[in-house]
Specification:
Layout lengths: L5 H8 L3 E4 L11 E2 L5 E2 L4 H12 L3 E5 L5 H10 L3 E3 L5 H12 L6 E5 L5 H4 L4 E4 L13 E2 L8 H12 L3 H9 L2
Parallel strand pairs: 1-4, 1-6, 4-5, 6-7, 7-8
Antiparallel strand pairs: 2-3
Length: 179
């Protein structure tokens, strides 16, 4: 689990939107292609449940990825995620557009990343989180790091930590037990 320091918890309490990178965060970063060029990715079911929990608890979810993939579009549609930006070489432009659409300031946003292309957003948000297997060069800019690797439940760990800091996780769990 992410170490829930006082600083992390204070930052997480203000979060209204969590932005996730895809390759290396929602996936393990491996890229698979068949002979026809069809791309395949593997997503962790627990991560998907975490993203849905954020949305059900009033926290917007955004996806900002440097690559474009139809499979990402489909997965995000399945999860009901509306704010999906793919093919973003300059992630800051997508970040600014998302903030404007949601009428949020950067102090209300968390970003989860794994490598240098995520650094611009990590330094602009209130809460920057790296996955366990992130490139070490981004760690000094993060307030938290998951114990799980990207594509292996790291996103769920982030979702649970933010919901916990906001006092919403226990109720979310209870709602499932009452079904």
């Amino acid at each position: 689990m992410i170490e829930l320091t006082t600083d992390f918890q204070q930052r997480a309490q203000a979060i209204k939107c969590v932005i996730f990178d895809v390759d290396g965060v929602l996936t393990d970063g491996k890229l698979f292609f068949d002979l026809n060029g069809q791309e395949y990715k593997s997503f962790h079911a627990q991560d998907g449940q975490g993203l849905k929990l954020l949305q059900q608890n009033g926290i917007d979810v955004g996806i900002i990825s440097g690559r474009s993939s139809p499979i990402v579009t489909r997965r995000m549609e399945n999860l009901g995620i509306q704010h999906v930006y793919q093919g973003q070489e300059n992630k800051t432009a997508a970040f600014n557009d998302l903030l404007q659409k949601l009428n949020l300031g950067p102090e209300q946003v968390a970003h989860v990343g794994d490598d240098l292309p995520d650094l611009a957003l990590m330094t602009r948000t209130r809460l920057a989180i790296a996955v366990h297997d992130a490139n070490p060069s981004i760690l000094p800019y993060c307030q938290g790091q998951t114990s799980r690797a990207g594509g292996h439940g790291a996103a769920r760990e982030v979702c649970d930590a933010i919901l916990s800091a906001q006092g919403k996780l226990e109720l979310a769990v209870r709602l499932f037990s009452d079904r």
